[in-house]
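Fold this sequence, please.
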Amino acid sequence: MQDAQKSAARVEGAELARRHARVGLACGAFVACMVGAAYAAVPLYDWFCRTTGFGGTPLVATMAPTKTLDRKITVTFDANVDASLAWRFGPEQRSVEVKIGETKLVHYAATNEWTAPTVGTASYNVSPPQAAAYFNKMQCFCFTEQKLGAGERMDMPVAFFIDPAIADDPELKNLREITLSYTFFASRKTDGRKSADLTRTTQ
């Protein structure tokens, strides 16, 4: 009788261990999926924004419009640098007036104020956000790592146009100004050191 009870207990224990193992594997797979989804979310969100103009992200175009409208919009340029990156960065002109459908080329410039080479990456957005669906860039330095040597200055061109389809949007019929804003952040590849370990070349 005792042998039968012991045998039953062993079988029950083995079954319980198998259930625990299955639960553990399921939890591990779930955690792995969540980690993978977290890493994938950033590029997917970026792709979604650049495809739809969501969140004030300008669209990327390969061809210019075939028509130009007489209506003009003033495009103002904004520039920011995160505290982690000691660059001087800004547009060569604060604003331009462009016709809808007209392709325009403007320039930003960045200067590295560290005593060592540094790498930065720029993000951007358009204000008001509703205008992002019509603001198209054909050339830009954003989302591409830019490396500058100590004290080096780099010219950064931006070619853009405003899609003529904006004229058919009733919410933007009175729009007179659009702001294009860039912010540079330090890349993780920057010299392998934190910004606090570096010294500016200029004060």
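The domain at 59-197 is CATH 2.60.370.10 (Ctag/Cox11 (Pfam 04442)). The longest helix spans residues 2-52.
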